[in-house]
Amino acid sequence: MPRRSRFIARHVDHAATLTVERPLAEAMALFTPEGERRWVPGWDPEYFFRADEDGPDTAFRTTHDGEETLWMVLDADLEEGSAGYARITPGSRMGTVMIDGEAIDDTSCWITVTYELTALSEEGNAVLERFTQGAFEEMIRDWGAAIAALDAAAPA
User: Fold this and answer.
1) Residue 147 lies in a domain
2) Do 110 and 21 meet the contact criterion of CB atoms below 8 Å apart?
3) Beta-carbon contacts of residue 72 (< 8 Å; ≥ 6 apart)
4) Which neighbouring-strand residues pair with 14?
5) What does the pLDDT read at residue 2?
6) Considering its fold, how many domains does the chain have in total?
7) Do 129 and 119 meet the contact criterion of CB atoms below 8 Å apart?
8) Label partner for 118 (CA 20 to 30 A): which of 8, 23, 38, 84?
9) What element of type H or E holds 3?
10) 139 within domain boundaries
């Protein structure tokens, strides 16, 4: 009988920080399920359960970049600068996304985004192999540009 090879899951843990020219709570609101609608093209959460102001236990689904992902809000304290999400892309990968904010002054803050993901399949391994720290940092730079563009597009 042929021996089956054992699946070995790839795991990544990436963090990067961006500067947002908004007060902390306002910046953190951009990283909620509804807040991301403002700057992520195609972001359209479908809610299974929605807690007050997208707080803990909010459960939703997104279909983004051709993939379905299931989410649950673990933590949401926008005033203090923290939010956490569990996520699973069925058949591919699962993990957490943590958002930590720190005020620089009354009008700007640093937002640190941490993704910790584990593959669930060879397909997931392939995705995470491409999801290097450099690719993650490029994604966060793109996020910063998209958020900055909100202010540039706002009427004066």
Assistant:
1) yes
2) no
3) 57, 58, 59, 85, 86, 87
4) 115
5) 66
6) 1
7) no
8) 38
9) none
10) yes
3-class DSSP state of 103: strand
Please give the chain's pLDDT, 156 residues, in tens: 666 679 999 999 999 999 999 999 999 999 999 999 999 999 999 999 999 888 999 999 999 888 999 999 999 999 999 999 999 999 999 999 999 999 999 999 999 999 999 999 999 999 999 999 999 999 999 999 999 999 776 655
How many whole angstroms from its chain centre is CA 37? 12
Query: What is the per-residue DSSP string for 29-93?
Result: HTTSTTGGGGTSTT---EEEE--GGG-TT-EEEEEETTEEEEEEEEEEETTTTEEEEEEEETTTE
Instruction: Look at residue 39 and tell me if it is in a domain.
Output: yes
CATH code: domain of residue 104: 3.30.530.20
Give CA–CA dist 98/6, Å, rounded.
31
Query: CA nearest 124: which of 89, 78, 86?
Result: 89
Please answer whether residues 45 and 32 qualify as being in contact, where contact means their C-beta atoms are separated by less than 8 angstroms. Answer: no
Task: Identify whether 1 is part of a domain.
Answer: no
Domain of residue 115, residue span: 11-153
Rg, Å, the chain Cα set: 17
